[in-house]
Amino acid sequence: MQLAEPGRFESVSIPQPRDIHDGEVLLRLLSGAICGSDIPNFQGRISLVMRDTAPGVTTLPGYPMHEVVGEVVASGDPALNIGDRVVGWATKADGLAECLVTRSDSVVRYCASLSPAEAVLIQPLACALYTVDRLGVAGEKVAVIGLGPLGLMMAHAAKTGGARSVTGVDRVDRRGIAERFGVDTFVHSMADRWAENIKDEERPSAIIEAAGHQVATLHNAVSAAAIGGRIFYFGIPDDEFFPFPVNLFLRRQLTLTSGGVQDRQRWLRTADAYLAEHPELLTCITDVFDVREAQEAYDRASLHSHGRLKVVLTVGDAR
């Protein structure tokens, strides 16, 4: 699949990649999942990660999808063999392709009991576990702004990681599922209203901003945090520069942390083991499409709706 214009895919045929360098693998796609960070790029925004300058939309075939499960077809890494099934990152975000090349240090073999459509959850779960580990949540009052699939997994990881309490904030009503993911208090609200009305005794000491895509929610995290609190900004920015409430940040004596997953193989393996221990996390997969239905899948993922969480695409019978 290739973007023809903002919000519209077309099917294209290109030669299969042949040049596999050391530290790379060629994968045959089995399954992929849509991340919230893919949607602005699907809708035509310039990717701050890919640094593309194409007019109109990014015309890289297979773009935008980076959460993938695939079968190794060729390998430039002696630790991965032809026929291995692996999960992880499509490092060029070109996962909507029959075959793709990715860095071998960004994928691992996964638990054989999982179908590819289930195993794809390991990649975002690795991001959630990494974030919670870096933030440090044991004994803390934690708040997660944005209870999409990733935010829910972060809430779950915070609860199992020893958080004293977990509050989840989302404009979409997640009451039914939030409790199953370790959320003690669900706030059905825009983040600014929550931050504006929070009582001092309710202020969280650790906040994960898992919404992204606008300036406001980072400001809301600063406004809501307790004195001496810590904020992890995970939500992907759509803008290069953010205005920031420095005075309030200073007066509250806050700490701001951010960053993507380092040592990806370690965290993918950790996520694989965590998912085996907590299979209830699979309930955040709500929609499964054939990869040929990518247009419908991305249209569905673009909607903020009560019943929609993780949208997964599969190839043939890979469910």
How would you characterize this protein structure?
- The longest helix is centred in the middle third of the chain and has 14 residues, at 122-135.
- The chain is globular.
- The protein has helices at 38-42, 116-119, 122-135, 149-160, 175-178, 191-197, 216-224, 246-251, 264-277, 294-301; strands spanning 2-5, 8-10, 24-33, 67-75, 85-89, 99-103, 107-109, 141-145, 165-170, 185-188, 206-209, 230-233, 255-258, 285-290, 310-314.
- The chain has two domains: 2-123 and 262-314, Medium-chain alcohol dehydrogenases, catalytic domain (Quinone Oxidoreductase, Chain A, domain 1, Alpha-Beta Complex); 127-258, NAD(P)-binding Rossmann-like Domain (Rossmann fold, 3-Layer(aba) Sandwich).
- It is an alpha/beta fold and 319 residues long.
